[in-house]
Amino acid sequence: MAVGILINLLLLVVVAYLAGAASAAAEVSSWLDVVPSEIASKLDSGSNAAARFATDYGGVTRAAYPAAVFQPSTADDIAALLRFAYCAEPPFPVAARGNGHSVRGQALAPGGVALDMAALGGGRNRINVSSEGAYVDAGGEQLWIDVLEAALRHGLSPRSWTDYLYLTVGGTLSNAGISGQVFRHGPQISNVYELDMITCSSESNRDLFYGVLGGLGQLGVITRARISLRPAPARVRWLRLFYTDLGNLTRDQEFLISLPDPTGFDYVEGQVLLSHQRVDGSTFYSNQAVDSINRLKGESNTIYFLEGAVYYDSPSMADQKIEDLMKQLNFVPGLVFSNDVTYLEFLNRVHNEIEKLSSSTVLLHPWLNLFLPKSRIRDFQVGVFGGILQNVNHTTGPILLYPLNKHRWNDIMTATVPDEEVFYTVGFLWTAATVEDWGTFDALNNEILGFCDQNGIEVKQYLPHYTSKLDWARHFGLVKWEKFVQLKRRYDPKALLSPGQQIFTTQVNTQEGMHAKL
Length: 518
Ligand SMILES: Cc1cc2nc3c(=O)[nH]c(=O)nc-3n(C[C@H](O)[C@H](O)[C@H](O)COP(=O)(O)OP(=O)(O)OC[C@H]3O[C@@H](n4cnc5c(N)ncnc54)[C@H](O)[C@@H]3O)c2cc1C
Ligand SMILES: *[C@@H]1O[C@H](CO)[C@@H](O)[C@H](O)[C@H]1NC(C)=O
Ligand SMILES: *[C@@H]1O[C@H](CO)[C@@H](O)[C@H](O)[C@H]1NC(C)=O
Ligand SMILES: *[C@@H]1O[C@H](CO)[C@@H](O)[C@H](O)[C@H]1NC(C)=O
Hints:
By secondary structure, this protein is α+β, with helices and mostly antiparallel strands. Among the domains are: 125-231, Uridine Diphospho-n-acetylenolpyruvylglucosamine Reductase, domain 3, CATH 3.30.465.10; 235-462, FAD-linked oxidases, C-terminal domain (Vanillyl-alcohol Oxidase, Chain A, domain 3), CATH 3.40.462. It has 18 helices and 18 strands. The chain has helices spanning 19-25, 37-40, 47-52, 75-87, 144-152, 169-173, 182-185, 206-212, 246-258, 287-299, 315-326, 343-347, 351-359, 377-385, 435-454, 469-476, 478-491, 512-515; strands spanning 7-10, 43-44, 68-70, 94-97, 113-116, 127-129, 135-139, 156-158, 192-198, 221-231, 235-243, 267-273, 303-312, 336-342, 368-373, 399-405, 422-428, 460-462. Helix 16 crosses helix 17. It is globular, with a radius of gyration of 23 Å. The two termini are 33 Å apart. Mean pLDDT is 90; it is low at 1-28 and 509-518. The structure holds flavin-adenine dinucleotide and 2-acetamido-2-deoxy-beta-D-glucopyranose (3 copies). Residues 391-393 line the site of one 2-acetamido-2-deoxy-beta-D-glucopyranose (NAG). The site of flavin-adenine dinucleotide has 36 residues, from strand 4, helix 6 and strand 10. It is an enzyme of class 1 (oxidoreductase).
């Protein structure tokens, strides 16, 4: 997918009108006392508002509260807020908050302003499908479920997804946006034609467009994205094929992602089931299926399933395609289960699971997501699935495992992936019931990362969490890091944006890139 290069910027021109206020600020207790009237009514410094914005989906990160919550009605309001933040003495941080579905405090703004993106547009759906159907314009605050429903009203759909749709356009584009369609269409960041952004600079260059995609909220606030569309299929055959051998699973997954459109599956993922993990009757499995799977679990230790989907309008064509493909796959004979659902039901499949969880007491999510080079998957299996995780007899939450292909990613963007054409995403989506439990999983995550480090397995974290500059520099690699530092210097020189990522904690001086030792 070609990425458009048009950048529409709502420039943040730093003007002098605040100069008086800024010099006065030294004598007043806080910048909160000198809020410009144009934004004062949208800034809430009450502790109730602040408390709501002091945590996230991860549930454990409890940073200091934001000093205030800002509810913009328009993009101009955001520009006014950033202008104020930039000129205040001292300047204060601002974090756009999409749906707060980060798990490590990435959208928090301790002591600064939490920018409540949901307020943008005042509750109106800011989503327009183009008349010829090539793209949809969506506000950065919009949830993907709403973008999908709007597109479906025209018989259309974005191409690339996340597993869960109650995430914002600006939030996933700040990371990458991945799911089982990436092998065919690239991540969500590869399907964007245009962006509107608000930055802390009067410059606007093409580098900003690429920098913001996967840019972890560091360079600007995305207020609109133009996203590529395709015709939506009517229905989906949704399959799960079981394996006792990881080599066979990955061979089949890699075969499937090598097939060109329209042959092969339209979606390919997979999961690992550890020895103590059982499947239960859910919307996917019949009781009979549950019995056969758990019988297989009794015989083998760790088992795996490949999850695939075939989009279709004609049932007979779907049948034929699946029949042909099944002959070429090496799952355990008979252990294939399928469902037939609407396209919307398929894309929104995770929603019910999440609702079930959030209505119970389980609220903590110490997740770890990795991109693992294909050449090291065997070592990872031995050390992690067959090693570290075998010593654990209680986990909850799925472990995702599926391959992606590097040529669908654009290396000019900030998002960072391993240096091999095929790499695996491995997602440990733990849920913890207590803080102690959280600590156990966090320790397990660190053990996994330590294992990779000691064995020279060059994983990249997805939705990365690091706290030292050296680790961030390693994450990006020398070339990308220096470029990222330059972009930061240009578009957010006072390092005000998304401080919860813990990348740039002070003003970005010119030396920063130079001193990173790798
Ligand atoms: C249940 C669940 C399932 C998930 N499944 C997937 C998945 O399948 N694939 C996948 O790729 N990810 C997945 N994620 C991760 C998700 O992509 C991230 O949490 C992401 O941050 C989006 O969440 P959000 O919109 O709530 O953003 P937030 O968590 O609110 O923000 C994320 C970061 O982006 C910044 N930001 C937010 N909005 C903007 C904006 N408009 N402009 C600039 N910066 C902004 C924030 O300051 C913060 O640094 C999942 C998360 C959860 C909780
Ligand atoms: C949608 O179209 C209306 C009317 O042209 C326009 O005012 C609005 O800004 C558009 N919204 C987005 C998100 O592009
Ligand atoms: C893996 O696939 C091969 C080739 O189809 C098959 O012979 C073998 O039995 C499979 N191994 C397991 C453990 O399923
Ligand atoms: C496994 O669970 C039992 C109790 O259910 C516990 O006593 C034991 O320590 C656990 N083992 C490990 C390695 O976690």
